[in-house]
Amino acid sequence: MHPSDSDRPSPNGRATPDDDDVIIRATGVTVSFGEKTILDNLDLDVRRGEILGFVGPSGAGKSVLLRTILGLNPKQAGTIEILGTDYERANDAERLAVERRWGVLFQHGALFSSLTVLENIQVPMREYLDLSPGLMEELARLKIDLVGLAPDAADKFPSELSGGMIKRAALARALALDPDIVFLDEPTSGLDPIGAADFDQLIMTLRDTLGLTVYMVTHDLDSLFQACDRIAVLGERKVLVEGPLSMMLEFDHPWVHSYFRGKRARTIVQPTQTANAPVGAA
Ligand SMILES: Nc1ncnc2c1ncn2[C@@H]1O[C@H](COP(=O)(O)OP(=O)(O)OP(=O)(O)O)[C@@H](O)[C@H]1O
Ligand SMILES: [Mg+2]
């Protein structure tokens, strides 16, 4: 299922408040560290079944927002509803229920270095599921296969893997609990263009086959143009615009303009990807 954009006329790309497809809704989110305000009255919607590309200058607060959505970072104001639950106000049982439905690939420290790939994938299973060791091992091996790693990757330590294999292993761990949503923070950084394109293809295939919703922080223009249904841009401490690529190409803001219409972008953007042709939207 791909979200349709044509029935959502809101000027900044937000869905209507009663939209059933919204799986994450951040409203008026403010996050500060001491005197420094990183996010100020930020709004963002993520829709069920989409690949959302989250983009913005380095240091703008993309990872901070991700950690805030996951409840790992306190906010000073605003609400975040994820899968219908306000995580901050939820009780322990409700939080646990939500945590079991998401998987995360963090920007740094994707895997525990002292554990093998198989053991890494089993970490969330041990934490959240009550399964026998044999069943956990079987499930972990299935995840290894799902992300396109060879079976012998299971017993390797992260130091024995290439960058691309680490990303895949980290994705396998993010998929350990069969989540509804996966959060990926810069999943293709450090990969060569072919490895990155393969990873994007894997994400699209998983979204299509597992019905995942994907929240992907990225600087990778190829990913944004080829894999993402919608894009949200962080700037000036809030989401400046969210919508299909066509909306980014039209949006009148210096950073957005130079990012999506700059020299690097022009070498990637296809002639068909002009104002009326949203990428990835069916
Ligand atoms: N725990 C923290 N305490 C204080 N400041 C923090 C903390 N975490 C992040 N920051 C600051 O918040 C700002 C945003 O950081 P963040 O890591 O979210 O940037 P980013 O948009 O993910 O950048 P990049 O694209 O380089 O990953 C930075 O100035 C950073 O120093
Ligand atoms: Mg970051």
TrEMBL record:
Organism this protein belongs to: Aurantimonas manganoxydans (strain ATCC BAA-1229 / DSM 21871 / SI85-9A1)
Protein's name in the database: ABC transporter ATP binding protein
Family: Belongs to the ABC transporter superfamily.
Domain ABC transporter residue range list: 24-261
Keyword set, alphabetical order: ATP-binding, Nucleotide-binding, Transport
GO molecular function, a single term: ATP binding
InterPro entries hit by this protein: AAA+_ATPase (IPR003593), ABC_transporter-like_ATP-bd (IPR003439), ABC_transporter-like_CS (IPR017871), P-loop_NTPase (IPR027417)
Cited PROSITE patterns: ABC_TRANSPORTER_1 (PS00211), ABC_TRANSPORTER_2 (PS50893)
